[in-house]
User: Fold this.
Amino acid sequence: MTTPAATNLHAELTPEEMAARVRRLQIQAKRLVRMLFLGEYHSVFRGRGIEFSEVREYVPGDEVRAIDWNVTARMNTPYIKKFVEERELVVYLLVDLSASSGFSTMPFSKRDLAAEIATLIAFAADANNDRVAAIAFTDRVELFLRPRKETQHVLRMARDFISLQPAGRGTDLASALDLLMRVAKRPGVVFLLSDFHASGFEASLRLAAQKHDIIAVSLTDARELTLPAAGLMLLRDPETGGRALIDTEDRGQREAYATAGAARIARRRRLLSSLGVEEVPVRTDASYVKPLMTFFRSRAKRPRSV
Assistant:
């Protein structure tokens, strides 16, 4: 995909600027979790259901339906099965750090947006006593942090999402999804944050979606969809380096660019829907709070499967 050339802002940050940025991200994420997201997160991701805990002797008032008749027959006195909600979840954050994610015509790039949203989700999970893991990827896996429960773990994630200088430039969603399937022994909640400028990942995503609850947070910059009338413009593919020069004063060329961008979004939407993956579309020129809140509230209204 070709886009207007843009600068990699991450390479220009000093250690002091990076630390300040992580601190700002921490403060903002915690504020949003406290004010907006924690209740919605808890109501949507409350655990995988109920699990057997123990049998105990029946006491008046217990439900007759809970009686374990096999144990009752052996003990010659009524016993019931006790169940508890299986509370703990593991939340996996799969974050795209490819060269295309660094593209931006706004103050923040798609990678910045992914870092903020992933950190917000990580703090919500931490506040909800869930374990959080991270897989950062380009055309290879750049980082894997195993599931843990502690604030320092979340802060390390935030720092890595911002500061990691990836070795790769392309996008290989399949490599990240294949790693997820190898390390995740039990079903979990997966947030996949990417611009989805990739191919060949469909089989891996289909397999992962059969085991995990996968939410695709799709990242888009406004200039990937439309171009202004600004004369000659050099378009460069940030992952392959390919270039194209177009005349943006030519209405036909601008319309062709917009048509291609809209078609790409529509293909992505159809693909994710066909795989049973819910999409949360976010853009660099708009707040991500509204689409995330819409997602959480929509999920909270659905009947919960046990």
Remarks:
- The chain has eight helices and eleven strands.
- Confidence is low (pLDDT under 50) at residues 5-10.
- The two ends are 42 Å apart (CA to CA).
